[in-house]
Amino acid sequence: MKIGIRRAAILGLVIVSVSSFPLWVSSLSIGDLPALAQVQPIADLMEIALRERAEVVLIDGSEKSGRIVEMNQQTFFLGLGSRREEISWNQVDSVKFKGDGIIVSPVGEFKIRGKGGPRIRLRNVPQQALGDSPEGNLVIDLREIPGISEDEIGEFYKLRNKFQYVVDIIQYDLHQNRMVVELTGYEKKDE
Questions:
Q1: pTM (2 decimals)?
Q2: Does the N-terminal or the C-terminal CB of the chain have fewer CB atoms within 10 Å?
Q3: Under 8 Å CB-to-CB from 31, ≥6 apart: which residues?
Q4: Distance between CA 55 and CA 63 in Å, rounded?
Q5: Which residues pair with 133 in a beta bridge?
Q6: Given a cut of 70, is residue 32 above it in pLDDT?
Q7: pLDDT tens, position by position, 54-78
Q8: Beta-strand pair 63-71/83-88
Q9: Distance, CA of 52 to CA of 54 (rounded, Å)
Q10: Is the CB of residue 53 less than 8 Å from the CB of residue 64?
């Protein structure tokens, strides 16, 4: 098996190729090479923009709103003005998003506007399918969702090249420890 590594200097990313199949890894150093078995093909990971404002309904009926600024499998941080509040997923009934979609990258924030296109509803998304996203984007590991075939993952990959997806709703089922995630696609424009 041939492994090649090259660094994309502008974004500080490392591109790893295993037998000509590109994988995306950030912050990889040569000392990390034994961990390559854990690296996933980029097609398995779906990075999704969040909208400017999140309306969070907790299972006790109370509501909070703000901007989700970081999330992982167990919690997310809601920006409330100048402070941040950590909220555990097991306290959440639903999160509805409003406003423009925001994609956060190492080079800045970009608003996503325009007429929405294709909608996707991901069902049975387990908590472990959520990837760490310190920038406030949603990252879903498609291989962790039961019932999604290789062909469907390939279709998501094709759509991701044409559309930037933005989260509309996350409905959390505490008893099943699963989520339903509804997305809208916005056509990417050539720059």
A1: 0.69
A2: C
A3: none
A4: 7
A5: 71
A6: no
A7: 999 999 999 999 998 888 889 999 9
A8: unpaired
A9: 7
A10: no
Using an 8 Å Cβ cutoff, are 22 and 13 in contact?
Answer: no
pLDDT in tens, 75-134: 999 998 889 999 999 999 999 999 888 877 666 777 777 778 888 899 999 988 988 776
Residues in the chain: 191
pLDDT tens readout for residues 135-170: 778 889 988 999 888 888 888 888 878 888 899 999
